[in-house]
């Protein structure tokens, strides 16, 4: 894929989701970091339900460290992998106090030092909290990028990120990240993508395969399936 082809794809997705944005509720970089950490293998909707109460109870790193680990685990029990995430949150808060004066660092290499914060989380925080252009490759961005040909099926997450950074103008990285997420979350879903009404079907090998006529396929009994 070249930059011109990517431009055409971005323009279509922009028309579909002009108001794409970060759907994790937060009011500062610290809350966003906690929310993104919690969102791993969990929906934003569930995270927002949990943080509605969590962010009222815990305002600062000190607050998360003032309770036993078991209490924090109970507070986020609706979140997948809540035990590990509670442990990461407390370790993250301890490191913030010990090394960063209790503040979320604004440098990518320092963000990834924080427990539970990988490259994707750091990119989300950098772009949404500090306004630094970044493309965070989550499961939606990865899936859409590969289906539309911006990346190869066997590319790693880092390779997908690098290819998108080359194809997309830097000033559009953050917005593109959000729009690809919306496209993947609400249209090009993992299990039931809306191929029949997709304006980008001609770009998608998987979509074309899904839309092939079923006339010659047979069911388990060998009876031709009817269209």
TrEMBL record:
Organism: Paenibacillus roseus
Record bears the keyword Protease: no
Cofactor note: Binds 1 [4Fe-4S] cluster.
E.C. code: 4.2.99.18
SMART domains: ENDO3c (SM00478)
PANTHER family listed in its UniProt record: A/G-SPECIFIC ADENINE GLYCOSYLASE/ENDONUCLEASE III, ENDONUCLEASE III
Protein family (similarity comment): Belongs to the Nth/MutY family.
Cofactors, names only: [4Fe-4S] cluster
InterPro entries: DNA_glycosylase, Endonuclease-III-like_CS2, Endonuclease3_FeS-loop_motif, Endouclease-III_FeS-bd_BS, HhH-GPD_domain, HhH_base_excis_C, HhH_motif, Nth
NCBIfam families: nth
Keywords: 4Fe-4S, DNA damage, DNA repair, DNA-binding, Endonuclease, Glycosidase, Hydrolase, Iron, Iron-sulfur, Lyase, Metal-binding, Nuclease
Positions of [4Fe-4S] cluster binding: 188, 195, 198, 204
Protein's recorded name: Endonuclease III
Record field: catalytic activity: 2'-deoxyribonucleotide-(2'-deoxyribose 5'-phosphate)-2'-deoxyribonucleotide-DNA = a 3'-end 2'-deoxyribonucleotide-(2,3-dehydro-2,3-deoxyribose 5'-phosphate)-DNA + a 5'-end 5'-phospho-2'-deoxyribonucleoside-DNA + H(+)
GO biological process: base-excision repair, AP site formation
Pfam families: EndIII_4Fe-2S, HHH, HhH-GPD
Domain of life: Bacteria
Protein role: DNA repair enzyme that has both DNA N-glycosylase activity and AP-lyase activity. The DNA N-glycosylase activity releases various damaged pyrimidines from DNA by cleaving the N-glycosidic bond, leaving an AP (apurinic/apyrimidinic) site. The AP-lyase activity cleaves the phosphodiester bond 3' to the AP site by a beta-elimination, leaving a 3'-terminal unsaturated sugar and a product with a terminal 5'-phosphate.
MF annotations from Gene Ontology: 4 iron, 4 sulfur cluster binding; class I DNA-(apurinic or apyrimidinic site) endonuclease activity; DNA binding; DNA N-glycosylase activity; metal ion binding
Boundaries of every HhH-GPD domain copy: 38-186
